[in-house]
Design brief:
By secondary structure, the protein is of the alpha+beta class. Helix content is 47%, strand content 18%.
Length: 154
């Protein structure tokens, strides 16, 4: 089944409640990721009203504008899966309302083609997420030190 057909079906259901009931009982935004034979890998975002759109990368939720700003500057189409996982963690660390990020608060998944061209969905373990958090925290600290050093040179 084509990914967009699934997205459209869910969003039509959400939109019907908005249009005819005047309510948004679901009150959630969704991110859909999938693969089909027609268009390959796809990423869609829907809002509570049922509107949806396709993206190469997107952010939803609290502080999504800050996350989208980071995507605009740091996202690269030819990046590896690991680079994109690091970018995801970077966005979360900069936009989460928690001072101490932990693997228990962050869940990361990867959708890719595996053996025999089968699409495989994998959720990273807490240990894998912890490594990514530590790597990005180090990078952010180095960026902060460089910025402070540059301010001292003025």
């Amino acid at each position: 089944m084509p990914v967009e057909q699934i997205v459209k079906s869910v969003c039509n259901y959400k939109q019907a409640y908005t249009q005819f009931g005047g309510l948004r009982p679901f009150g959630v935004a969704f991110v859909f990721a999938g693969w089909d034979i027609n268009h390959g890998f796809q990423l869609y975002q829907s809002d509570p009203s049922g509107n949806y759109s396709g993206w190469k990368a997107t952010v939803i939720g609290q502080n999504n504008q800050a996350g989208k700003s980071i995507l605009k500057t740091d996202y690269k189409e030819d990046a590896t899966i690991n680079d994109n996982l690091k970018l995801s963690v970077k966005i979360l660390l900069k936009t989460l309302d928690s001072a101490t990020p932990s693997p228990e608060r962050i869940e990361l998944s990867v959708l890719k083609k595996g053996d025999n061209d089968k699409v495989v969905h994998t959720t990273l373990t807490d240990a894998e997420v912890k490594v990514l958090i530590e790597d990005i925290e180090k990078e952010l600290e180095e960026e902060r030190k460089k910025a402070e050093a540059a301010m001292g040179d003025i």
